[in-house]
């Protein structure tokens, strides 16, 4: 059984908070099945956006980079994605060290 998007987002924000990594919901999507984008803002004018990807061969889920570069370009890409998917969640993580915790077990 998979977690709903709303529960996953809540758990992710809690993990970040426990590590003192600021994060917030930019766009609330569908609570049950909305896809999630995670924007990592390193507070130096640069950013990276992650999306969850599925490996069709193994069934494994992993986070991959959707786009990265100047923050304005990343924001434009996220806005474009939101135009395609109104149920999309967007979470912004702000960390100068580039921590996002998406590579930790249980977040895939």
Give a brief rundown of this model.
By secondary structure, this protein is α+β, with helices and mostly antiparallel strands. 26% of the residues lie in helices and 33% in strands. The chain has one domain: hypothetical protein tt1805, CATH 3.40.1530.
- Broad structural category: alpha+beta
Rg, rounded, reads 13 Å
Shape field: globular
What count of helical segments does DSSP give? 2
Give the CATH level 1 class: Alpha Beta
The CATH topology name reads hypothetical protein tt1805
The CATH homologous superfamily is named Protein of unknown function (DUF1491)
The total strand number stands at 5
Strands ordered across the widest β-sheet: 1-5-2-3-4
Distance between the termini: 14 Å
Largest sheet: 5 strands, mixed
Helix content: 25-40%
Unreliable stretches: none
Strand content: 25-35%
CATH architecture grouping: 3-Layer(aba) Sandwich
SSE pattern: HEEEEHE
Kindly report the average pLDDT value: 92
- Total discrete domains: 1
